[in-house]
């Protein structure tokens, strides 16, 4: 009798887990070829129908270029001080007073960006990363967020110089 109770209990647990884990909805696995039909009470849209990313006044990193940003021509970006393979995408926004710069971060670190020099000829942007806390477990992944860096005046015809500092 004791084994029968364990067997029935194990069977009920297995049946419950299988039933819950096996349910796949149209929202999690949409049909190929366009918009999907979601179960009652939920809404799904195709990626092309997604609204553009809102402005980023907080300066926190984001993975998409903010809507309304304009790319800075490659000839106006000096990335010679960056390591090989480091991204060097720069966009302007808000009339040229905001630079959206692609940075690199990984694990527990977070990308930082700061305009450390602004002259009539150039703007120097220092890219860095926060240090991980001692004893903290971190993943070994790389992310390439965009950082918003405020300028004192619109970029205009100035060159953007990108440099990298050691983690802080």
Automatic annotation (TrEMBL):
PROSITE patterns for the chain: PROKAR_LIPOPROTEIN
Biased amino acid composition, Pro residues: 49-58
Region of interest called Disordered, as start-end residue ranges on this chain: 26-73
Signal sequence range: 1-21
UniProt entry keywords in alphabetical sequence: Signal
Domain of life: Bacteria
Protein name: Lipoprotein
Source organism of the structure: Amycolatopsis rhabdoformis
């Amino acid at each position: 009798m004791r084994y029968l109770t364990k067997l029935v209990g194990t069977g009920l647990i297995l049946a419950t887990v299988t039933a819950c884990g096996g349910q796949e909805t149209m929202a999690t696995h949409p049909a190929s070829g366009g918009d999907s039909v979601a179960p009652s009470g939920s809404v799904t849209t195709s990626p092309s129908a997604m609204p553009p990313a809102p402005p980023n006044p907080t300066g926190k990193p984001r993975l998409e270029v903010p809507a309304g940003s304009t790319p800075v021509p490659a000839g106006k970006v000096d990335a010679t001080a960056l390591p090989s393979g480091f991204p060097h995408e720069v966009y302007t926004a808000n009339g040229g007073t905001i630079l959206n710069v692609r940075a690199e971060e990984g694990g527990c670190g977070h990308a930082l960006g700061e305009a450390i020099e602004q002259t009539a000829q150039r703007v120097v942007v220092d890219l860095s990363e926060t240090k991980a806390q001692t004893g903290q477990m971190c993943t070994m992944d790389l992310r390439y967020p965009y950082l918003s860096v405020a300028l004192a005046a619109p970029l205009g015809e100035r060159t953007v110089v990108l440099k990298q500092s050691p983690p802080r």
